[in-house]
Amino acid sequence: MAKPTRIFFVADLHGSAICFRKFVNAAKVYQANILIVGGDIAPKTMTPVFEGSGTWSVTVEGETRTARSIEELERLEGWIRDSATVPFRTTPDVWRELIADRTKADAKFQELELGELKRWLEWARTRLAGSGARLLLGLGNDDFTSMEGVIAADGFAELTDGGILRVDDRHELLTLPYSNPTPWHTNRELPEEEIARRVAADAGRLEHVERAIFNLHVPPHNTPLDLAPRLAPGFVKVMAPGGEPELTHVGSTAVRAALERFQPMLGLHGHIHESKGSVTIGTTTALNPGSAYTEGTLLGAVVDLGPDRIRGTMLTSG
Description:
The chain has 7 helices and 20 strands.
């Protein structure tokens, strides 16, 4: 008899190495046999580690640390990675020259991120090989499209993007690794009309849409899963009279319409870090585990799949 399918789903790791390690280790903790990252794997920044006379120093969020040996340097870079940024060994002169040229800086950042992704995948393979757990990775709006090639070539991790992936003998996974337009004009955004077209095209390829999982990075509009601070010009948060940020719905209208139209068994979403929760849309259960990557805390969702229904869900934090 086949082992029941238990999914552990996260999104929006944004380069936090400690959160990725927790995610991989969750396979054992939660006895999950399907691990899914629903996008936004890449960090948002690179951090210079300045080489001096036998020392290396770095400042992250106002805290400066210095290494005086290779062993200390490696520990220092581990701290940087756990702080959700990617280390770059350099000198002050080279760094100033690099950041003065946006094209060169972007190229270097992407190069460093691809290297970090390979590190993550190699580590995950050593932890998960022989465990029976599968590692399914997809991109989000903050990721680089070049990351798809690294995942596809890994040989252990499976790329969710660009096709229908079979989770088990009864459930298929449909993935949309983009968001609707954002104020930040990030790497991978699509108009609502294109989101609708792509999801509908892929839904038409499913054998049983009612048993499918829609892994759509952006959450459905006008639900508890898509509330984010309202922004004034200059990306300033609008404050409510009580002193708290005023919230607004920023999810995708096309994703909402797709869930209403196709009624998959499960919707897995991310993108909006503040909106951890679940909602029922018709017969579809939609989840957003949220994200607290800046704190080194992993937010996730455990989902137990039955042949024709969801047996149970649990939002996690750790």
